[in-house]
Design a protein that fits this description.
Elements (H helix, E strand, L loop, with lengths): L1 H33 L1 H12 L4 H29 L1 H19 L5 H12 L3 H16 L4 H18 L1 H11 L1 H20 L20 H4 L2 H7 L9 H5 L2 H22 L1 H7 L4 H26 L4 H21 L3 H29 L4 H30 L3 H19 L17
Helix pairs in contact: 1-6, 1-7, 1-9, 2-3, 2-8, 3-4, 3-5, 3-6, 3-18, 4-5, 4-6, 4-9, 6-7, 6-18, 7-15, 7-17, 8-9, 8-15, 13-17, 13-18, 13-19, 14-15, 15-17, 16-17, 16-19
Length: 430
């Protein structure tokens, strides 16, 4: 018994340590890249003499690149483990931002941003770190994924304000060099701390010792081991309607989120705010993101995940309306708080994927979803830029995003968990 307790504590420690390392890597990626895009947007556009549509296209094509790489990235993560994928992604991000500081043409911007910076960002910073959370936890899967996902917003709150200060004090080129150095000095060593799975260390998810199933009664053992879940292959998953409903819902949500995040500072400038003020409020969104992720993750382990996502998408639609149409300061602050819901739903989405389809092929399934849903992230910023270039206003974008939010909520509401396969029980069932 003491040995089992020690093994459980050691397993829990290692599991949460893996989550902490993944979070640290995501903090870098979130603060310097995901949220940093909006800080770089106007300076790069103005210095290179580009339209907003042209600049949006670069960022959107980079997202498309991540989509195309999704299935291959998923295979590599499942086959070789997350560590090499993360290490390569962090190194490329660092080298890419160093090279970005020397870009002087639109063609070079496309080559550096797409060919180096974003080449494996989706695979390393997003897919691989989420696979770590899915591999190490079952009972606390939504919470572990929410903490991991929320670290993107934490990075936005901690690092993006410094990035914005650097851009407006020393210029975007110097800030780009600083981002590259941070990725290389901090990110690469962190990536080497990632362990492939609890099984590789003689443990099971949630800190259970490897001999738990033989020592515990069948009901308890089943609730803690990988055999307790549906384990669908990629082929089986693609045949389920749940996969397609979840993918389309995620695509529409990603379109809304990316359109606003990439154009956030330009949107506030359109409303009469200054660029530094826009960067400050972008940091507020990021600051709200971490507690929102934790709250939604906590709820996701206790409530029906699909209904939870449908309800929060309706709150997200209110944030879109207030952001674009609100005229009072309190309306902007409420919009910022509610907008963090968009990002907060991502970990619940991936926890739902784990609940529905299991752990063994999670990265391949997530990669296949990414191949499809990331096109929403591609469309959103380009659509926003095209609307502004044509009308010199973001008003039409507001109504398009509102309708998209309502459609997304309806798709989530239609989701039901697949029936367990023979020999499996639903996660959390006792």
């Amino acid at each position: 018994m003491p040995n089992q307790i020690f093994a459980k504590l050691a397993g829990l420690y290692l599991g949460w340590r893996m989550i902490a390392v993944g979070c640290a890597i995501r903090v870098l990626g979130g603060g310097l890249h995901a949220y940093g895009i909006s800080v770089f947007f106007l300076p790069v556009t103005q210095e290179l003499g580009l339209t907003r549509t042209a600049t949006s296209l670069v960022f959107s094509l980079a997202r498309a690149q991540g989509a195309i790489e999704g299935p291959l990235a998923g295979y590599c993560i499942d086959r070789f483990g997350p560590r090499p994928v993360i290490a390569i992604a962090v190194a490329l991000a660092g080298i890419g931002y160093l090279l970005l500081s020397g870009v002087h043409s639109y063609a070079m911007l496309m080559i550096v941003y797409m060919g180096i910076i974003s080449l494996s960002y989706q695979a390393g910073f997003m897919d691989a770190t989420m696979a770590v959370a899915n591999t190490w936890f079952i009972r606390k899967r939504a919470l572990a994924m929410s903490i991991t996902s929320g670290s993107i917003a934490l990075g936005g709150a901690l690092l993006t304000p410094f990035l914005a200060y650097a851009v407006h004090t020393w210029g975007w080129r110097a800030a780009s060099i600083g981002a590259g150095v941070a990725f290389l000095i901090a990110g690469v060593p962190l990536s080497l701390l990632i362990q492939r799975s609890p099984e590789s260390l003689g443990l099971l998810p949630d800190g259970a010792p490897a001999d738990a199933q033989s020592n515990l009664n069948g009901e308890t053992a089943n609730s803690q081991t990988p055999s307790s879940e549906n384990e669908l292959t990629l082929r089986e998953t693609l045949r389920t309607h749940q996969f397609w409903l979840l993918t389309f819902a995620t695509s529409f949500r990603a379109m809304c989120s990316s359109a606003v995040l990439v154009h956030f500072v330009p949107i506030l400038v359109w409303k009469g705010y200054s660029e530094p003020q826009g960067a400050f409020y972008l940091g507020v969104i990021a600051f709200c993101g971490m507690p929102t992720h934790l709250l939604i993750g906590w709820l996701g382990d206790r409530l029906n995940k699909t209904r939870l996502m449908a309800g929060f998408m309706m709150l997200g639609s209110l944030s879109v309306f207030l952001l674009f149409q609100g005229t009072q300061t309190w309306q902007l602050w409420l919009a910022l708080l509610l907008f963090s819901v968009f990002e907060g739903l991502f970990p619940v989405t991936w926890a739902t994927v784990g609940d529905f389809f299991g752990r063994k092929n999670f990265a391949k399934i997530r990669g296949s979803m990414s191949f499809l849903y990331t096109w929403g992230s591609v469309l959103g910023p380009v659509l926003a830029g095209a609307i502004y270039d044509r009308t010199q206003s973001y008003t039409a974008l507001c109504w398009i995003l509102l309708i998209t939010c309502w459609i997304t909520a309806a798709l989530y509401a239609l989701l039901l968990q697949p029936k367990p396969r023979a020999g499996a029980i639903e996660p959390g069932q006792s």
